[in-house]
Structures are given as C-alpha cells and as structure tokens.
Amino acid sequence: MKIAVVGTGYVGLVSGTCFSEFGFEVFCVDKNLDKIAMLNRGEVPIFEPGLDLLIQKNVGAGRLSFTTDLHQSVQNSQVIFIAVGTPPKEDDGHADLTYVFEAAKEIARSIKDYTVIVTKSTVPVDTNRRVAELMRQENPTADFDVVSNPEFLREGSAIEDFMRPNRVVVGARTKRAEEVMQKLYRPLYLLETPMIFTTPECAELIKYASNSFLAIKISFINQMADLCEKCGADISDVAKGVGLDQRIGNKFLHTGPGYGGSCFPKDTLALAQTAKQYGTPTSIVDAVVTYNEERKAAMAHKIIEACGGSVKGKKIAILGLAFKPNTDDMRDAPSLTIIPLLQKAGARVAAYDPESMDHAKTMLQGIAWSDNAYDLLDDADCTVILTEWNEFRSINWDKFKERVNEPLLIDMRNIYKLSEMKTTGIRYVSLGRPTV
C-alpha cells in the first residue's frame, strides 16, 4: 500500500516519515518549492529530536520521497492524508479550513481508483462531511471514502508518540474504509495499541476535547500556584498530592507562564467557536482561553515586581524562548507576550534559546541575542527561565554570580528545588512557592 501525505508541516512530515518506517512507500507533497528542495537536500525544516535521522534512513531505503507533484502522488497511492494547516481566523478564532478544502478539491481531480482520504489536520466537527461533499462536486464519479484520523503528537516527543501511541482514533462511515485503516495501522496492533473506530464527528470532537481538557488542567494548576503564593503553600506538594489521585493523574500539573504552541491555543479557540455555532457555549473553555492570555501578561508584571517595581534601564536575561523544550516552535509562546511587555516597561532584554532563535528573530525586535547561556548573563539585573531546556537545569552558580550584576533568578518552570537554592546566595523566585 502506498501513501501520499499532503502538507509537509509538523504533522505531515512526522506522520509521513513514521509511516515509511512502518514499511509503506510514502510520497510527501507540498506546494512550497523551497521546502521540498530543502528536504530533497537532506535538510529538515523543523527541529524534532530524531526526525532527521529517520528521514535519512527511509529516503535511503527508497520508502520516503518529497515532491510538488500532487496529481502523480495521488494516482500512485491508495491512501491520501490531508495534513495542511488550520490556523485560527483573526476575526473569531475559528479554524480556517481554506487549505483543507483546496487540498480536497485537488485530490478529487486526481483520483483514479478507490482511495481513502484521511483528514489528519485538526478540524472542527462536520469538516469531514463537507470535505466529502466538495470532492463529490469536483469529481462525481470518483470512488473514495473520507476518514477522520486526528493526530496526538507532542512536539519534542512526536516520533515516540506516533510509534507507541496511547490510542489511535479513526472516524469512518464504511467498513471498507475501516479495513484500509486497520491495514495501515497493523504494526500498532502488534503492540496492542487501543484502536477506537467511531464516526467522523466523534473523531473530530475527540481531538478538540482532549486538547481543551489538557489546557483546562494547565490553567487550573496555574491558578492553584497563584493561591499557593498568597497563602504560603507550596505548589509542588499540592500538585503531587493532587496528581496521586488516579482519577486525575499527574500529567499536565506543572505550573508555568501559560500554555502555547501549535495546538492548545488554536484548538481551545476553535472548540469554543464550534460550541457557540451549535448553541452550546463551553463557558469553561472560554474562561481558560481568556485566563491563559492574562496569565502571560501577569508573568511580565511578576518579573517587574521582583525587580523592585521597575525594570527601566535594567538588563533582563531570558533563558528559553520556545513554548516548550525540544522544539523550535514559537507559536503563541509566552515569551512573545512577556518580552514586549518588559520592553514597554523600559527593560533591556537579552535572550538565548538552543533551537528557536532563528524563528524568534523574525517575531521579536530590539533583543540582544546570545550564542550561549553564560554570555547572556553578563551584567544582567535579572535572569528569567521561560523554557525548561535541560541545559538550564545545571547552571554553575559560581559562574552565574560572577557574571550577573544582580543575583536574581526568576524560574517560571520551577526546575530547581527550594532546598538547593537556599544555599546558593541567589535570590530565587519561582511560581507557587516561597521566595528564597
């Protein structure tokens, strides 16, 4: 069985590469000539641990190729994945399905034999039905089924998530399509991966509901951290005690400056808009969307407060810019809110991130960029950890104190223990815990 993946963004590139690792022949298709040329030179446009080596391996084995020829790729494939972007619309936050519908119409014009069209892009309820209708209008004689197969890939752990997922969700209307998807995911049956076969509407909603629930969980623990700071409790102990309840679990109970990335911000907005469209507003999700943006701004004010109420003329050293470690993704990263607010308050901002600075330089202005963490510290009046990269977990405190102007560290990821920081001679401010 041959597969075509339309779209070589994060989801499409990871999915296509992993399917080739399963042994299928995969054509990754994109209209972006520069991106395809880059991939054919062996260069990977995104940072995802292990992806470059997996691409190299499967290209070498002849199972993975990159092309701009959608027509030929569709005609040579039995399964077509649509993995194009669905960014939020600027006016209302609803998912923009322009690229999905354009891809569907182009695919319809190229279908030759029975083909399963799989929507891998994150799309609102009823999208798969609309895709099928558009394709039938474009090519009334085409023989195809449209299937929903949402992705659950965590940036930084995407290959492991694809190869050993905690579930695979398939929304299909026919047994014929289900059987094709079962063959496609046969390698995961050997691992006894749970497979959920349901309707396209359920599959679409499972994706949005999952991400929105996790966003709620993150926002809840952030609010508990704020309460801990006021009442003298320690969020680390609170989160541990809550997470040991098996009904809740300990995942996504780590306080921080607010969620970001390619999924949670746009998926919560899209779910909220979909719910309003159907006359069933999700007030909890609405509140989380608002709170998360307020949270990011509040973190800038927390830094200003820790600096004595003013950062005018002070150098603030920022460690980490990406929304999370092991990715170069800057989409909706807290740094994009926090840094401009610090600059507006008069701060001089210097920054370093191991992977995301190329992207950050196109999104942030007036920054003094550094090539490493220690050079960044020179004459800093305040140092802030925004992303929990591993290299920030073992700072040499003697070197730190030698280089900074003021030994003040604000840790917005709580990566250090209070007991450890008490002995360093550094003023340590974290979230939901006492200052030491």
**What is the CATH architecture annotation of the largest domain?**
3-Layer(aba) Sandwich
Number of domains: 2
Q: Whole-number average pLDDT?
A: 96
Largest sheet: 6 strands, parallel
What is the radius of gyration computed over CA atoms, rounded to a whole number of angstroms? 24 Å
State the helicity in percent bands.
Answer: 40-55%
Characterize the structure shown.
By secondary structure, this protein is an alpha/beta fold. The protein has two domains: 197 residues, 3-Layer(aba) Sandwich (Rossmann fold), CATH 3.40.50; 218 residues, Rossmann fold (3-Layer(aba) Sandwich). The chain is built from 18 helices and 14 strands. The chain has a six-stranded parallel beta sheet, sandwiched between helices. A six-stranded parallel beta sheet has the order 11-10-9-12-13-14, with helices on one face. Helix 17 links the parallel strand 12 and strand 13. The mean pLDDT is 96.
